[in-house]
Amino acid sequence: MRRWVLFLAVSAVFAGSAFAEQPGSKKRRPLPPEFGRVIINNTSEKAGMAAVSFDHWYHRAKYTCRVCHVDVGFAMKPGATGIKAADNQAGFYCGACHNGKLVVDGRTVFESCGKALIGENRQACLRCHSVGKNVPPSIDFKAFTKNLPVGRLGNGVDWEKAEEAGLIKPSDFLEGVSIPRQPMTAQKDFALTAKLQGMPEIIFSHKKHTVWNGCELCHPEIFVGVKKGATKYSMVEIFDGKYCGACHVTVAFPLTDCGRCHTRPVQ
User: What confidence tens digit (pLDDT) does each residue in 151-190 have?
Assistant: First the structure.
């Protein structure tokens, strides 16, 4: 028990360091609607626009991570994609969906960076370029998530259970962008032994991850090897945003929710 308490204490320290702006400081825990929020500012302020505020929670309810980060081609790190208005206008990146034509849940998805909108009504740009602006969201987080399973941390939503229950049905195909794929054979769950003695083992499920990621999102860029044990990593590296931390530091349930991964007690 003492070792388990010690691990939690150490984990909290590492979690703080992962989000700290400078040594000795610690950011506040983001509110549920803010968790996974990405600020995109490659060229916005240079062009006289406010930076873009992107919320993962709504998009992940509609599309799998694989559609955006494999098929559409968004990088996994904020700012690494280098999105420009001209790219969106040409149907790339945000423009792959936000083209003024795609219909989701009976609503036409608004056009991003449309030339007519930019030329005539800059107010329309505030739907995305909203950092520092008092722009009410078009979809209310509390109303959208009120009937979804509760999670302890992060968004306060258990997205895995929501998908399993059919409460959300994220699409894994984007017309004109994705290619048809054969259903994958589900692999069995397997255990990963923690390095800290007495720490519960990790039960990793390919089935749960492939629902959202497929194979391509994780292999080979995040995990080079496909054989169990081929890739070596530590919790320090994970808290630094590598390996599991590529998602579980930013968007998926946070690393401070230890019991979501370390689920099998050591006998």
Answer: 999 999 999 999 999 999 999 999 999 999 887 777 889 9
pLDDT above 60 (res 20): no
Map out the domains of the chain with their CATH numbers: 2-30+182-264 (3.90.10.10), 33-143 (3.90.10.10)
21 contact partners, CB below 8 Å, separation of at least 6: 27
Other beta carbons within 10 angstroms of residue 96's beta carbon come to 24
Residue 14 confidence class, pLDDT cut points 50, 70, 90: very low
What is the pLDDT at residue 169? 96
Name which residue leads in pLDDT, 93 or 138: 93
Give CA 49 to chain center in angstroms: 25
- According to DSSP, the residues that pair with 107 across neighbouring strands are 104
Assess contact for 258 and 153: CB atoms under 8 A: no
Report DSSP letters for 189-211, one per residue: PEEE--SSTTPPEEEE-HHHHHH
Query: Distance between CA atoms of 242 and 249, rounded to whole angstroms?
Result: 9
Element spanning 103, H or E: strand 103-104
